[in-house]
Amino acid sequence: MNDHNLQIAGFKAAAVKGGIRGKDRLDIALIFCEKPAVSAAVFTRSLVKAAPVLLDMERMQNGEAQAILINSGIANACTGEPGMVAARFTSSLAAKELGVAEDLVLISSTGVIGMQLDLSCFEKAIPELVASLSAHGFADVAQAIMTTDTVPKISKRQVKIGGQQVNLLGLAKGAGMIKPNMATMLCFIMTDLAVSAELLQQMLAAGVEKSFNAISVDGDTSTNDTVLLLASGFAGNQPLMAGSPEVSAFQVVLDDLMKDLALQIVRDGEGATKLITIRVSGALTEDEARLAAETVAESKLVKTAFFGEDANWGRIIAALGRSGASFNPDLVDISFDDVLMVENGLGQGKDAETLATKVLKQKEFAVNLDLKAGAASFVCYTCDLSIDYVKINADYRS
After folding, report:
1. pLDDT at 203
2. Which neighbouring-strand residues pair with 368?
3. Which position among 79, 90, 184, 191 bears the catalytic label?
4. Entry pTM
5. What are 32's strand-pairing partners?
6. Which of 51, 204, 239, 242 is the Cys-Cys partner for 87 at CB 3.0 to 4.6 Å?
7. If we measure between CA atoms, which residue out of 165, 225, 166, 227 comes closest to residue 191?
8. How far apart are CA 303 and CA 311, in angstroms?
9. Predicted local confidence at residue 181, as pLDDT
10. What residue ranges of the chain have pLDDT lower than 50?
């Protein structure tokens, strides 16, 4: 996807080498809307929230934003009052340079927890950022927000609303410390849709539950998780309102974009070699289906078996047993893609295991779990756990 395909009406972006990373790389970025945008947000559910998250939660109360200032390398989390001062100071620098109200500037940070930001990096970078703003700057932003990511994560969609073409562009980062309830991930979605703030928030929250809150790399929830959705209104449609038949059309496309970004995160999971879909059906309730799916997705024994391409279904049914979901073990079916490994709680023998092992050698496959306890279901996405995951996280601050 080249830079020219990443334009979105009303928005500009830029990224610069600010020196935060201590390397010659992009690490401070800015997204700007030509006018205050209708905005929505979802943040980490962790009790420990970074200064940028706390500031954004405060500023998002009015459902409007015009700029997002982002840095990688330092998370500005667990930094006390100096961290809040830094968040407000950097946002005020951006607001002044852009000529907009300070409460319309949001902040996002990602990187090492517990370190203070060097404010001189922002003092030098922000004038250059503003001067560099361009309709073609989003690819640079996707690069600048990466930490242990190996590839930038970008997605774009289109949909007709009120006879007008509406565009969506999403950028995300994340590879480790990824768990449902958000993750050490940032996601910024821009659309030219005209829409009410209340409806935009409802649609974003609904989409997050099926995408970013349905993935797990390592079961760790971060302090900085943020998804921001800004709508410029430049598409020219009549403002989308609750109850409109076109709400579902936009929701489908928004969900698809977020799922695409979420799966890009799992594929790029630290040390990951496989993308695995966990499908639970036949659960008593949707909450229990989620419990079952997430427990299997986060089990270290299950994930290492996937890395080793070992069709050890005993680890899966053991994880189900401790998940908190209600079911009769003697009724459970387990299959890898379409290979039935367990029927009514009993393994199907060596031939089935041989076929299942072939499935596990694929880069992407599904584990299907039928609990036969009810009609509820849930789908989540995970990856294997490799030796490289340990190496990456052992050396993270080096």
Report:
1. 97
2. 279, 335
3. 184
4. 0.88
5. 12, 67
6. 51
7. 166
8. 11
9. 40
10. 180-183, 398
- 273 assigned to active site: no
Q: Are 16 and 26 in contact (CB under 8 A)?
A: yes
In this prediction, residue 92 carries a pLDDT of: 98
| Residue 382, amino acid | T
Distance of CA 89 to the CA centre of its chain: 27
At 8-39, the pLDDT tens digits run: 999 999 999 999 987 789 999 999 999 999 99
- For residues 24 and 45, what is the distance between their CA atoms, to the nearest angstrom? 34
Residue matched to tokens 């584990």: 367
Close Cβ partners of 216 (under 8 Å, ≥ 6 residues apart): 178, 179, 180, 266, 294, 297, 298, 380, 381, 382
pLDDT score recorded for residue 22:
75
CATH 3.40.190.10 fits 3-267, yes or no: no
Is the CB of residue 16 less than 8 Å from the CB of residue 129? yes
* Helices marked H in the chain: 51-59, 80-98, 119-132, 138-144, 197-210, 246-267, 286-298, 300-307, 313-321, 349-360, 387-394
In the chain, CATH 3.60.70.12 sits at 3-267
Q: Which residue has the tokens 């910024």?
A: 188
Strands 346-347 and 164-173, how do they pair?
unpaired
d(CA 280, CA 84): 42
Class of domain 275-394: alpha beta
**How confident is the model at residue 180, as a pLDDT?**
42
pLDDT digits (tens, 9 = 90+) for 271-321: 789 999 999 999 999 999 999 999 999 999 999 999 999 999 999 999 999
Segments of the chain assigned to CATH 3.10.20.340:
275-394
